[in-house]
Amino acid sequence: MSTSDPTLSPPFEASEPFAKRMDAEDGLAGFRDRFLIPATDAGSPVIYLAGNSLGLQPKSVQQYLNEELDDWATHGVEGHFRGRRPWYSYHEMFRESGARLVGAEPGEVVMMNSLTVNLHLMMATFYRPTADRYKIVIEDGAFPSDTYAVKSQLRWHGHDPADGLILLQPRPGEHTLRTDDVIDLIDEQGHEIALVIPAGVNFRTGQFFDIASITAAAKKQGCTVGWDLAHAVGNVPLSLHEWDVDFAVWCNYKYMNSGPGAIAGCYVHERHGRNFDLPRFAGWWGNDPDERFKMHLLPEFTPREGADGWQISNPPIFSLTPVKASIELFEEATLPKLREKSQRMTGFLRFLLEGHQSKVFEIITPRAPAEHGCQLSILVHDHPKERFAALEKAGVICDFREPNVIRAAPVPLYNSFMDVWRFAQVLADATG
Ligand SMILES: *Cc1c(COP(=O)(O)O)cnc(C)c1O
């Protein structure tokens, strides 16, 4: 971790003019204009800090969707080959840009299905329990869908989750995990662990795990390692290929701004992508595209090399189109610049909250820049519901987790430092 990181000794000031100056000096500020920002009843833009739940709509989405509707109207079935973005190879548009998002090689990433479906498809291939090695590791307090998926996989293979599921837990009195504790657990129990599959960024605490170290420790023990990147993609820097991660899954509707239920992402390390002997659930879109339309003439499945070979159905184009609109913005802004702004914004938010109301707020998201993304999870000790209600009344959209956690995520693509300033003001001022 760099000690020269400005967020560690913040050159921040708790003032509105300072927030305005930060916005004026922000090289990415123009991207805000490329999004549709919901308005309050009074007609002013809301302070939208819920991009960790559902990102805002890029303005380009509507045009791209209209173009697909036009191509369907104009070409009918021929749109598969004659559309301006032919549907037959539509998913290949993300071969390079999708890979760049997660630090993968071209071919290691495909956009398909939804997150939990991809999780199951990946486990169909990569969770291969044996009598001695069948346990699965996730973090305690994982997103419920992941917990359900993993437990159901254990049962599907005849294991009792009470025995087969290992939950990573913080130390008593602590809110987040220590990397050393995770690695110690893996070192001790690794011989029984088939699969390690935590979230890269925990949805509730905002903790960004040390994916490289945890992956390396698990691989040393012979475990397979996958990551759920729902809260990590488009948020924090990732180098999946370099870290030798076996597989990963994510959704594209949070930081990726691709709309409710958008088509999700999936990464498979190229070593596995070339291994045609791996068991998998097959469908025609995972087949070699040159043979796909031979249909019933070739009843044997020939998987396509790479992550593409795990596709099953032909993709819903209208749900894939917003992913294109969104990724273009990430390509333009670039992830390192977004990360740099994100750390300044989240650092500013922490500075404002801690500077004035230290008895009322406890930020449970780790402090070190390398251990968090956009989101801060704020435990509110005093009048949490009243403060949250005041936020809503002031036109802030963020979220509340019972009994007293507010999650706020300033997103570098469309939030401003003034958003952060106003949010902190309302949160501090509300007395219930
Ligand atoms: C958002 C999220 C999900 C949602 O799953 P879907 O299959 O997209 O409905 C699952 N897991 C995690 C960790 C999430 O953050």
Describe the structure.
By secondary structure, the protein is α/β, with parallel strands linked by helices. The chain folds into two domains: 6-58 and 335-430, Aspartate Aminotransferase, domain 1 (Alpha-Beta Complex), CATH 3.90.1150.10; 85-331, Type I PLP-dependent aspartate aminotransferase-like (Major domain) (Aspartate Aminotransferase, domain 2, 3-Layer(aba) Sandwich), CATH 3.40.640.10. The chain has 15 helices and 15 strands. The chain has a seven-stranded mixed β-sheet, with helices on both faces. A four-stranded antiparallel β-sheet has the order 11-12-15-14. Strands 1-3 form a two-stranded antiparallel ribbon. Helix 4 (94-102) packs across helix 12 (317-333), helix 5 (115-126) runs parallel beside helix 6 (144-156) and helix 8 (179-189) runs parallel beside helix 9 (211-220). Bound molecules: pyridoxal-5'-phosphate. The site of pyridoxal-5'-phosphate has 12 residues, from helix 5 and helix 6.
